[in-house]
Every structure is written in structure tokens, then in C-alpha cells.
Amino acid sequence: MSGYAYSCAAVTVSNGVAEVALAATGKGNRMGPDYWDQLPRVFEQLDGDEAVRVVLVHTPAEHFSYGLDLAAMSGELAELTAPDANATVRTRFLAVVKKMQRTHTAVAACRKPVIAAVHGWCIGGGVDLITACDVRLAAANAKFSVREVKLAIVPDVGTLARLPAIVGQGAARELAMTGDDFDAVRAQRLGLVTAVYETSEALLTAARAMAARIAKNPPLTVQGIKQVMNFTSEREAALSLDAVALWNAAYFPSEDLQEAMGAFMEKREPVFKGR
User: Fold this and answer.
1) In the CATH hierarchy, which top-level class contains the domain 2-199+220-266?
2) 146-168 burial, b if ≥16 CB within 10 A, otherwise e?
């Protein structure tokens, strides 16, 4: 067994399977600066490692991920979210969005198939991550939400680019526009996950077994399957990612966003005015 040292995840490689165990940066396994900086390097390294045939993403934490760590990222985002942000600030914001998009695009672009094993909450950025994976499995306690709309944010790190191809346009639009929570049963019915297991332990056992089965197949053929299937979907995803990055650079700094952030910190219901 071998592995790589990163603070955002513990990575081990054994018998052709690389396990990427996401490391919590705060309550709910949130995605902080180390995650956005390091995860692309993790997957670039796995992509180039001939000993790796399959990647399994999971976490020992209580929840898969609450998504973006707003507290840890507040310093980087504070200037960029002001309603009076000028063109220079908005250009910097566009660069930040592009950097964050590349984090999950690195997962989708990895030639090795990637399996996500989800338990607990998978919110916002967590959904961005799993939609960049090839196969998604869940424990019965898994709960999901495309939550960004509640914060006056158009999801810009992958969900809108990849979720419609997985669950269909109608379901993707409903989930993104309502921000509703949904459980593992509905996730399976929609096709977001392909199987649900009673416990987190059973989930991990099944995910490891699937990874082992894939690892026994001819690796170049498996990689070819992924690359051919990605040929159309990832070109369309790239166009969507460009569109949302430009949209958010123009419209992200808003009074509604400030209201959403204030309500979040004050633990109250926001009142949005469309400004």
C-alpha cells in the first residue's frame, strides 16, 4: 500500500484502487482553501499513477460535505461579494470562480473512473463534487441539497453543468430552483445514485467491492470508456461552466447575497428583494 500526503484528504493506493478520504476542515466536512488548492493536484497525481486503476472518494467524517466553508473562505470572498464591486474586483472574482471550477473538473477529467460513496449530508459543493464522479453510491442516511439558491447564488462549480445529464433537465431544474432537501431514496429514483445501502459501513464495503471489480478489467479499455462517454458531456459542461462564471462575475455581488449572508450568520429567514 502507498499513499500521498495532503491536508484536504488522506490518499491511499492498494491493489489498483486509490481511496481519497476527504478530511474535514470544519463542521460538516466543509470545503475550505486547502480543498480548492489541493484536490486538483490529488487527481492529477492519481491520473498519472500507473498503479491506480480506480478512485474511490469517501470520508470518515459524519457527513460527506456541507459544501463551501463560508467562514474559512470569507477573507478571500469579502471584497468580491460587495454590491459596489468594480470591474477590477469582478475580474478577480471571475478568476476565483474559474479556479474553483477547475477543482471538480480535475475529478471529471481524471482518466481513471471515480466512485463516490456518500453518507450523511451532501450539500452544495458536495453535489458539485459527486456530479463530477462517474458512479455515485449512497447510504440510507444520505441527504442531498442543491442549496445555493437559498444563499442567492447561482451554483457555479459544476452542478448546473453536470447534474442535468445525470437526472434530466426537469429534475435538475427543480432541485436547483427550490433548494429542497432530498433523501437517498429519491436520489436513487432520480438516478443521482445507482444504489443505496443500509449503513455507512455497508456502503463502503460495496463501494470497495465495485472498485475492485473495475480494477480487474483492462485499464486502458476502462479509461477509454470514460473518455468516450466524457467526450460530449464534458464539452457541454465546459460551456455551462464558462456561462455561469461570467454570469456570477456580473451578478453575484447583490443586495440579496448580502441579505442571505446576514440571515445565515444571524440564523433567521432572509427577505429577498431582487436587488
Assistant:
1) alpha beta
2) bbbbbbbbbbbbbbbbbbbebbe
Mean pLDDT of 177-204: 98
The pLDDT confidence band at residue 83, using thresholds 50, 70 and 90, is low
> Which pLDDT score is estimated for 260?
81
User: In the prediction, which pLDDT does 245 show?
Assistant: 95
What does pTM read for this prediction? 0.93
For residues 87-116, average pLDDT: 93
Closest CA to 131 of 98, 97, 175, 93: 175
Q: Per-domain residue ranges for the chain?
A: 2-199+220-266
| DSSP code per residue over the chain | -EEEE-SSEEEEEETTEEEEEEPPSSTTS-B-HHHHHHHHHHHHHHHH-TT-SEEEEE-SSSSSB--B-HHHHHHHHTGGG-TT--HHHHHHHHHHHHHHHHHHHHHHH-SS-EEEEE-SEEETHHHHHHHTSSEEEEETT-EEE-GGGGGT----SSHHHHHHHHH-HHHHHHHHHH--EEEHHHHHHHTSSSEEESSHHHHHHHHHHHHHHHHTS-HHHHHHHHHHHHHHHHHHHHHHHHHHHHHHHHHSS-HHHHHHHHHHHHTS-------
